[in-house]
């Protein structure tokens, strides 16, 4: 009986970690505008959280345009990423995280799982204009100063971003 309780506790911890990681992956995709494949390519060596302007480095070979990019990060996302990186997670506390360790483990079926998460949260996958719900929050991030004054985001910026996808 004691073994069964320990097994359930381990499973609960594992599921809690997976939930937090999926939430952070979704948040990172939403706040940066990265594609799934682009985020999957980011390693710990490409994460710069202690810079004056924290950013993720996207290598040219991993970016759709082939130019590479420095993706600036919001302060709240930086703190979540820092916590994720410094957790003694995975299977062993002694695990050595290297420069080439992926920031996240992103699986092939992640978008299907993300779709299920949207459904569970009662969020439509597409809005009335057939625009994916993942791009609207990113587009809104383009005008953070105007949001402070409750003004709508720059329509031109939103149109450009949504049409690029």
* Count of distinct strands: 3
Estimate the helix proportion, in percent.
40-55%
CATH topology of the largest domain: hpI Integrase, Chain A
Per CATH, the architecture of the largest domain is: Orthogonal Bundle
Strand content: 5-15%
Largest sheet: 3 strands, antiparallel
Mean pLDDT: 76
* Topology as a string of helices (H) and strands (E): HHEEEHHHHH
Total number of domains: 2
Number of helices: 7
CATH superfamily of the largest domain: Intergrase catalytic core
Main CATH class of the largest domain: Mainly Alpha
Secondary structure topology:
Elements: H1 2-32, H2 36-41, E1 47-48, E2 55-58, E3 69-72, H3 75-86, H4 110-120, H5 135-140, H6 144-148, H7 155-164
Antiparallel strand pairs: 1-2, 2-3
What does this protein look like?
- The protein is mostly helical and about 160 residues long.
- The chain has two domains: about 1-90 and about 95-105, Intergrase catalytic core (hpI Integrase, Chain A); about 125-165, no CATH class.
- Helices cover about 50% and strands about 5% of the residues.
- It has a three-stranded antiparallel beta sheet with strand order 1-2-3.
- Helix 1 (about 1-30) packs antiparallel against helix 3 (about 75-85).
- It is globular and about 55 Å long.
- InterPro entries: DNA_brk_join_enz (IPR011010), Integrase-like_cat_sf (IPR013762), Integrase_catalytic (IPR002104).
Labels describing this entry:
Integrase_catalytic, 165 residues, Integrase-like_cat_sf, mainly alpha, DNA recombination, DNA binding, DNA_brk_join_enz, 7 helices, disordered C terminus
